[in-house]
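Troubleshooting log. The previous structure file for this entry was overwritten by mistake, so regenerating from the original sequence record. Sequence copied from the archived sheet and checked twice against the printout by T.R.
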Amino acid sequence: MDATSSPSSSSPFDMVSSALGQYIPRGGAAAPAGSADSQDDRTARQRVPADPASRPQEQILGAVNLDRDLRITRCNLDAPVFVGLDVVTGSPFVDLLPSGDVPTVTRRLRQVLETGEPHVARVQRLRRSDGSELVVSMSILAAAAPQEGLTVTLIAMARRLHLYAAETAIGTSLDIGETAQSLAESLLAWGDVAAIDLDFAVWTGEGVTEQPQVRIRLRRAALVPDRAWPDGYVTPGDDLPSDASRLLSQAIQRDDAAQAIVIPDREAIERTLGSPQLVRALVPGDRAAAVACIPLVLDGTPPVVLGVAEVWRRADRPFDDNELLDLQELVARTSHHVDLARQHQREHMQVLALQRRLLPRTGGDTIETASVYQPATPDSAGVGGDWVNSFPLPDGRTALVVGDVVGHGLGAAATMGQLSMEARALLSAGLAPDEVLEHLDETVALLDDAESGLTAGYSALGSTCCIAVYDPVSHQVTLSSAGHLPPVLVTPDGPAGPLEVRPHPSLGAEFALREPFDVHAFAAPPGSLLALYTDGLVEDPAVSIDEGIGRLTDAVSTVHPWDALQQAARRVVAAVAPGHPRDDVTLLLARMIGYRKGDTVTWRLAARDDAAARARTLVSAMLEQWRIREDTRDSVLLVASELVANAARFARGPITVRLIRAGHGLLCEVGDTGNGRPRLSRNALLDDGGRGLHVVHRLTTRWGVRWTDTGKVVWAAVAR
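Regenerated output below.
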């Protein structure tokens, strides 16, 4: 340390140094840099007092001068509280900081250099050479002319001020890992190593209602400082050995009351733990050590122990009563922050579990799908209502759905799940995409009806949705959109770009603004790629939304037909998504495969009395060509005959018969121009009407109806 430079009355550094010269006790100043006594004096003062700021004769103020490269030119850190800081003239000031604080503090230092405006009273940690940390209040001032650079003043924080600052810092995050880390960093002011071990139920966000005696599984949530630890030592993310969890649980809840305990030396620690394995797992080093264990207690009847905070220090620095009171007070003040983080962790896990259930599982034989979902922030408050889904419809087609529910958190996730499940049910029932959106529109309006009591302070108005249905026989996609951004289509031979979808109001618009949802049909030959996404993928403050969609088109165009689709989806998101997205990022990629020409056949028949016989002849020849076994052939012939006979009897216009060889079954479809829905009903013993549907029902694995612009299609699946 160098305090010998001649002062200039206009320098903030020299004014602080002059004041320090008046108040530091005689003999307390450091010897001039380079003198023979300097090293001996530093060695003699390496032991940091347990509470230096509490002793009236010791000062807590120091100053450091920096040049424009943020290197130390002079310093006056002679007060005993600063002993252990490795301050070397010419070294970067950021060497005194924990690695995680370097970017922020560097930015602040350069800001003061550029603007001249001071940065005052920042609560900051400094690293001592022995690995412990010192909490200070740091102010950054511009050096007075003609000097250049900065003056940094440091005030070692008194314990009561540290308690207040620590509680404020710990309550700033809803992430349980960050909350535990903040608490451990605050506890480091009382020791050399601090660890936070949480009940596993707390870590996972589960409810905490059991008695502490039966909860013996602890997981290490935080550990400071960051260093290389001995083999076998429990580090963050590891579970404590069951014996260690049991010992800690029993120790802190003696007489059914959670209380702090202190083990004063290593001999007592080894005797308490009872095995070398537990010593390696819990004791942070080979040197003699003492430990204070403070329970994190949630007030209640009875109180619930959330975990244990452990503060380790060298045995030659025993804990005094005042320090234990301070430790207990800090942990008691911050236990409710841990519980709040637990509750948000629980909500976060629920939302992500719901979204994972909505992600596509597989695309089937006629389409390949892949999806990527990235929440904007890791906490539950930031998890939004974006969802993507793809699922096979019973009639062989595939539905692709993407939606964006307004808001974040559990309310948005609940609405997202309701809309997604409703869309799936309606599509499976045979409704067209525009009809499904009409129902979703009504649902959102109902959810926002204050009189229904369903809103509970949350509004889903403005949510968007896009539904596409892929027909693998005709290679056509039918699409409807409610306020959603247009999908991007890349065909093997044609141009790539966003589909021309006429804008439509989002879901839940006022009745006067509601318009019929448009239906867009377009060709998607085998090998085509369709990208459905939410606005978080393409919205970037630095570029326009059209440019963002153009970048997405370029990225999807680079996907090779042989590329693994899931890896390709991740590459597209990495290339297009903003560096710091403000909303969740969601992408669904679908690669069209379709049926081979030889696996499908279509006939058009006149609605006459002989239509059923004609259909049996055509279907029988095709099944023989496909070499379908006889029992399956008989079932398909009977099903086709009954469906065609029903269409000829009750409908007008031409009848379309389509036969599809799909996977492990056969699909028979009969289309007509009628609008009546076939229904399976209980018939009397001698009733002739409706017997055909009973035959179809018994011979098929599934059957149903879907509606078209010209009528309906009755389909039936037969296993082979």
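The longest helix spans residues 321-358. Archived copy saved in two places this time.
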